[in-house]
Write a structure and sequence with these properties.
The chain has two domains: about 260 residues, Dihydropteroate synthase-like (TIM Barrel, Alpha-Beta Barrel), CATH 3.20.20; about 100 residues, Sulfite Reductase Hemoprotein, domain 1. By secondary structure, it is an alpha/beta fold. Helix 3 packs parallel to helix 4 and helix 10 runs parallel beside helix 12. The chain starts with 18 loop residues before the first strand and ends with a helix. It has twelve helices and 15 strands. The longest helix is centred in the middle third of the chain and has 17 residues. The structure holds iron/sulfur cluster. Iron/sulfur cluster binds next to loops.
Amino acid sequence: EIGSAEVHDKVERRKTRTVMMAGVPIGSGHPVPVQSMTKTKTADWKSTVEQILRYEEAGCQVVRCTANDEDAAHALKKIKENIHIPLVADIHFQHKLALIAVKSGVDKIRINPGNIGNKDKVSEVLRACKDNGIPIRIGVNAGSLEKDIMRKVGYPTSDGMVESALRHIEICNEHNFDDVIVSLKSSDVFMMMEAYRKLAKLCDYPFHLGVTEAGTSWQGTIKSSIGIGGLLSEGIGDTIRVSLTTDGTEEVKVGREILRSLGLVSFGVTLISCPTCGRLEVDLFRIAKEVEEAVAHIKTPLKVAVMGCLVNGPGESKEADIGISAGAGSAILYVKGESKGKIAESEIVPRVLEEIAILEKSLKL
Ligand code: SF4
């Protein structure tokens, strides 16, 4: 649920106008929703719904489907009826598909007005969105900048991306259409960061952040964490999508973790565990992994520390909601800063889980 996020006061968010999407405010100090995109054929609405329900389970808060032909655009209606999170239609060029998507009941459209074609078509699409209270996302991608911009700048640059975005924004302004969110994606982390920073000084529309074509799970997670996380830490960014060449639930997991690392969302268990070193006298790799797996489904915001020895263990454990500081084949258990005594190594995982359940219950009372 989008509204459950909590904004950390360490990050001073960029002031933007607020854009409503399916009744959810996007921008300024509002929570930062995590988005993903389906990888099925949209026209196969049953498989697409199945995939979205898995995304939802992973914590996805907004989902986008390509509306690349009429069958896909019509299928959005069925999809919308069977999911629980806002649905975005991804459209390139064809205004007819945008109109079908609006009729299908989508909550946002990703479209670049400058690519729709003649003025009448642009007006028609923007009017349909306005009449239905649907915002649009202008999605600039470094790999597909307008030809004349490319001729001018020679190769994709952050300035070229900003110029492209401003053109699309101007078209919206000409039509008095202000429900706009903008993205400036590039596979180059520096370029995308620079582009967002530059545009942040020139407009007050909320931003959808992403490093596009970021790669596979491993590389893409790192690139996205730097690009998206870097901007968020500067207060720039109002919704995010991590793009990975793998299952979308992985994108959602990474997105949520980026937000959690920056204190931009309080959701689920934050695990603090040490890297271990020669002082270690328990199997901390196993213990941390077992705790991580066992708490993956928990939505209550909790901090759990799993520490290898007395050097940093007691300090971190006392700061956490639940912590263990290991010794030789045993550990001291801490709950809310208080020592609960020594427990055997074999008891660590079950006892930590037991204490989590007790805390969760008390928080829900
Ligand atoms: Fe090593 Fe102890 Fe630090 Fe873990 S907490 S890395 S075991 S010194």
